[in-house]
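Box 3.1 — From sequence to structure: Bifunctional chorismate mutase/prephenate dehydratase
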Amino acid sequence: MSIGKKTPAKAAAKKAPARTKAATGKVAKTPAPEGHAAPIPADLLALRERIDGIDRHIQQLIAERAQFANQVGKAKGKLAAAVDYYRPEREAQVLRRVVDRNDGPLNDEVLVRLFREIMSACLAQQEPLKIGYLGPEGTHSQQAVYKHFGHSIHGLPLGSIEEVFQEVEAGHADFGVVPVENSTQGTIQSTLDMFLTSKLKICGEVELRVHQHLLSRSGRIEDIERVYSHPQSFAQCKAWLRQYLPKAEKIAVGSNAEAARRARSADDAAAIAGISAANVYGLKSIAGPIEDRPDNTTRFLVLGRELFPTSGNDRTSLLVFIKDQPGALHHVLAPFARHGLSMNRIESRPGHTGLWQYAFFIDVGGHVHDEAMRRALDELDEYAQEVKVLGSYPVAIA
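Predicted structure (token representation):
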């Protein structure tokens, strides 16, 4: 078909009489010819035109924002890589203002997600960030990556938490995302153990509401004889499994995405995983959400190679090796109380420095550069064998 020539349909449309009165805007009463859509009411047309105008304005503003973001990148000078342009404390401040301005009707989570994607796309003009995470594709770790960094990144699915640390340390990934604790099943010990020797810093956190689904190739629960999943997911769904699949074999694997990948090979197999894994591996959802607690949430940490400035609402994670003496833990915690710092979390792990020696992972409200935090850490040195600042980072947003 030649460009510019009128097709018979276009010619007929041109000859057809107008269905609306230009003067009044009212819809004509003439019934629609057979095979044609009914005329659109004038008030609906007006609303659509308003929405189209707003869409054009939004697009213009996004383009303008991207241009300014590009100028900011140039103002910083020629930097080595995309990671040098990324400022998590600045993003946190922007997103907090989005939440503060929000009067509805969209909720905070939706607006934060929209602005996160805009910032992600603007940053990717320089170069997409490379983000390592516990793979393969379809894991909750991948969802946490997208929630924190947006979709305009280059994801690197890796085989283990240890490998995520290694790839960031080697500079092959700009940042890494690893799970650290679940609201119902507690701490992911392998993540904490990596901090005993790693030089990486925590530069962000993500809280992800985790919904588990039973997925299979056939989509029929009566076919299921074995279920694959990560041990944490089995623990999160044990009551549901006991009620509905008491006789099925439970097989633990390294990730829920790996479980989905195995389940797609047989009709008598199923996986417990997020719904995104069903989309990636072509499975059907038999049931879900099936987690025992509806508030099931996993906290993830963002790993980087440096500390960032304060965002105004931060958390500091510490690794403290205490001296073996009476009241040692009390002496370690007391400086935080004296300086008005709230301790959010404490966890002990074998310190790997000697038999029955322990290290304490402590989360405290505030930034390491805050005056109160500096004074507390100075006092801590008197009673602690070693204090390691794992990171100061913005508190998770929406």
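Summary of the box: The mean pLDDT is 87.
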